[in-house]
Amino acid sequence: MMENFSLATTLITLGLLLPTCLLYRVAFNIFLHPLSNLPGPRIWAAFRFPYCISLWKGKLVYDVFALHQKYGDVVRVAPNEISFANAQAWDDIYRHRKGHKPFPKNPIWWGELPGRAESIVSASTIVNHERLRKILGNCFTDRALAEEEPIVQSHVIQLTDKLHEKIEANGTMATVNIVDWFMFTTFDIIGDLSFGDPKAFGCLENSAYHPWVLDIFSYFKLGALFSTVRFYNHLARLIMQLMPTSVMKSQETNYQWATSKVHSRMSLEVQRRDFMSKILPHFDGSDEKNGKLDKMSLAELENNFYVMTVAGSETCGTVLSGTTNYLLKTPRALGKLVEEIRTTFPESHMLTFERLSKLPYLNAVIEEGLRLSPPVGGALAHVVPEGGDTVCGIWLPAGTNVGVHQWSLYRSSSKFHDANLFVPERWLESAYNDKSSPYYSDHRTAVHAFSTGSWSCIGKQLGLAELRLIIARLVWNFDMNIPSDGKTLDWGTQKQYVLIEKQGFDVQLTARPVAT
């Protein structure tokens, strides 16, 4: 009898205690938390759940954009997270400020999977990040790009050759899902540069995705789930335990395929000016998880090449797809680009990295594409360091999650005139110098699609060179139009997780009579 009474009392006590604790936590987050004075919806300030649910739906980028439109440049999007849509935040969060501690990357988003060495993306300390960046930077110097250009050119030429074959097989024109062809190309390029194998993926040759690539696409969505459950440590452990063994095994198989390619390239006794040729001199021969000084261990080499392969293909493919989508819907801009490319280069062999880098309108098109279709639409997550610090003049306690929300900043009507329109002219010199230009006051320095400071994308210059070359060769070889009965796409309606889930769209291609 007493035992039943004791059990009932315990259950009643717990039933009262848990809601009380929850109500206290909600009240604290809304009214007493150090961030409670910052604007944002109360439900998001009270719980992390609205943020997580929005991300799981692929809508977080758009929901946060709506919040910025309502509340302004600074929005509290979770109990311990502030989103910024202000250019000053780039300097405060991502760049070195004299007298300030660096803002480390947020381990919830950037933390490495158990058992793997750290990569340049997941490096948990500034020292390790700088060491890896210094070593991997050898792949992206001006000299390295000149040596790697023939590899890139060969795959882009293969792309245009394949598209010509499509047209010839169909008569005078062909309709293709251009997103697939962009992804085929970027994966083949990075596979060749990383693994020393022109047919590592063979996407262009087979006009189809390699199974490894398809697996990578599926992991982006899964990665978003993994990242958000890390906000709840105990829940994260439970979910990992409940995760089907097949899922984890598939992910590990995918990783091991890449490492086997790395080992194959390391064993090649050939002089080939790809990524590995620049990294092997820094290989220390060990299998430790952390290399020393200016050296890199085997485990680090494996994971960094895996990361570079994914990042170097998916990001370029996103910008190529978004830029082309906007060009097709802006015939005036497409016409100007075609004229610049075709009048500047009478023959296709003249399209080189160096020459293309000097074309004002092509570069303006790329910049506008990066603004409206950045590889990462959300924030590159960092954390306020020990002791707290200020961002945009606002003091934030240590441990606060912070980042620049790119989609909101780049599409802000207070930062850009005609913010939602594709207008390459805003990037031309005339817009900088002519005070009568409607784009004179645009916040061009706010756009950092490759991030900025020591955290910026190490492959930025190679990425830009690829973007210029692929777009230039495409418009040099083909007339492009939106087909009357093909699949179209509104770029801003696609789901976004860590990266955008590209849906694809059709382009009607007609070959130029002089194209070769």
Automatic annotation (TrEMBL):
Lineage: Eukaryota, Fungi, Dikarya, Ascomycota, Pezizomycotina
Cofactor(s) listed: heme
Region forming the signal peptide: none
A molecular function (GO) term: iron ion binding
Positions with a binding annotation for heme: 457
Keywords tagged on the record: Heme, Iron, Metal-binding
InterPro entries: Cyt_P450, Cyt_P450_E_grp-I, Cyt_P450_sf, Cytochrome_P450_monoxygenase
Descriptive protein name: Cytochrome P450
